[in-house]
Each structure stands twice: as structure tokens, then as C-alpha cells.
Design goal:
The chain is mainly alpha-helical. Helix content is 75%, strand content 0%. Helix 3 packs antiparallel against helix 4, helix 11 packs antiparallel against helix 12 and helix 14 runs antiparallel to helix 15.
Amino acid sequence: QSYLDKLEVTCGPLTQGPHVTAMVPEVWGEKGWSLLSSHSQCYEEAKECFARALEEDPDNTEWNMGYATALYRLESISGILKRPEVSQSVRQLRRVLELDPGESVARVMLALRLQEFQLQAEANELVEEALRTSPDSPFVLRYAAKFYRIQQDVDEAIGLLKKALEFTPRSSFLHHQMGTCCREKLLALRKNQGSGDPGVEAVLINDCKLHFGTAFQLKPSYIFAQLDFAWICLMNGESDRAVEIYNNLQSLEDVTPNDKQAIELQLGLYELYHTKSESNAIHHFMEGLKIQHGTKYWKTCYTELEHIARGQINRNPHDSRAWGILGFLHREAGENSEAVECFEKALRFDRGNEEYLSALRELRPST
């Protein structure tokens, strides 16, 4: 942030007054890249900076690529879109490739996004071309590895990650991706239990812990690497170590909303599936929902809460708490009439409950 402040002070005069210099696009573009290298809360501002740069220089490949990167990351946080035609990052990455067909990083990023929309043939072609034209680019290698892992070609992904680590051995992202690949192999082994070497599982667990651990040692703020390390500990029966990590994460301050939401989701899943405490799980899922709306973690918290509440109602149709949860979920989703109906049912079985009365007053302010 101090660097961004200095950049603002130094370049501020260039962006003001009637005699704006030719430096302006570079000023906005430099600030955009700096914001992208910060944390996820800065991605929206980075997008705006690149948009300002493109107003002055619309055909500049670097600013178009920066704009595409910001859009790509923002869409990754918000979750999977339904159709490629509504994806701004798809349109912008195609724009980059129009300006520079040799931009291999844009090519493989576009492939990853198209993979989400099941456009596999075009995605495969894009990745293969990117690897042909830029076989030694660490960024191409990392994104291509992620592509093949999602495609369940884990061995191909590991081969690409090993090559990338030769160029950038201290990349926390690459170590996290390598740990994720090892976890995929571990899950596949457990699914086909008894068909492999019994010592392989122990090796994979150690490899997961090695790479996830290295990822957050290199970058202590890498929350997802710590969450994944804790998850492996749970798989290995090391519950105490996992709980220690969860407690440390809960005590952290200055955590981005995206990271905080991921922590609450993981805690909810831990309580639900490991301690078998629905009440504690409900607490964490509801806290996760309140942090930010419409992200992929929000959607998972929502789904888990709905599943719990409907299960409780199936067991006991008079469960006021479960009806209250459904009311809360409908309100979060903007479905006010359904929310009112659920809160009314909750009050029917828990008369005078102030939480439900307050919710109904909010939903029906005229009554």
C-alpha cells in the first residue's frame, strides 16, 4: 500500500488539469498491475485503473491484458457463470488475442474459463497451442497444469508443475497447486481402496503436507494453503493439528472478506462432518453468508444450510429453528414472500421469538 501511495503522489499531477501528458495510460496501467499484485480487495480498483488506461490507449495489449486479468480474478471470486457469452473475462481475453495472437498467458487463461463452460474442444486447442509457443513460461505452465488437473489428468499436471518449479522454486502458488494434485491422487486412491500399494497413501499425505506447508511458509497470508493443510491433517486423523490451525485462522485480523468467508465455510464443514455438530455448523455457515453476497463460498454456505434445515424439518416439521434458517436463507436470496412464509411458520412453533418478529417487521414494514 505504501508503494501505491507513493505512486499516487508522484503521478497524481500527471492525471490532473487540462494538459494531461502521454504518461497517463502508463500511470493507470502501472497502478492497475500493482493493485493486482496486492490482495483480492484491490481487484475491483485494479479493473477501474485498466479501464482508465484503455480510455486513452484502447489497443494497448498490456492494458487489455491487465483488464482481462482483473475481470478473470473477479469472476473467479464470484463463482462460475452460467454461459460464456455473459462472461466479461471471456470477451476481454478474446480481445487480447485479437491484438496479439501470440499472447500465450491469455490463451491458457481463456482455456480455463472455457473449461468451466464445458467448451472442451476449443479449450484443449488453446492450451496445446500455448504450450507449443511458450513451453518455458512459468505462467503458462501453472495455468496449463491447473487446466489438466481439472480435466483429471493429474499426472500431466504434476509434470508441468515440476517444470514450472524449476524456473520459480519459491512460488507459493505452484506449491499449492502441487499439493492439490497430490490430494487428487490421494482421493482417487481412497476411492479405489485396496487396489494399490498401501504405502502410497502415506507418501501422498506427506507430499500434500510438504507442498501445502511450503506454500504458506513462503507466503504466510496464504489462507487457502493453510485450510488445505488442515484438511489433510483431518484426513490423516490429526484432528488436534487441524483444530490448532482453525483456531489460529479465526484469530487473524485484517483478513480479506474472501479469505474470511472461506474460513467460516471450512469451519462449518469441519463441525458438520467431523464433530457431527449441526448447531456449530449452522453458526459458521450463517456467519459465512453474512460476510459477502453472491460468491462461490456464499453459495456453498447457502446450500449446506438449506440441506441441514430441510433435513431437520423432515425429522420434525415443528422445528422452529429450521424454519427460521429457511426464512433467513430466502431473505438473503431476496425471496421476501418465501421468507415471510417461513418466519411465520417459525413463529407458529416458537411464539414471541424476537428474532423472527424482527425479521417479519423488516420484511413487512407497512404492518
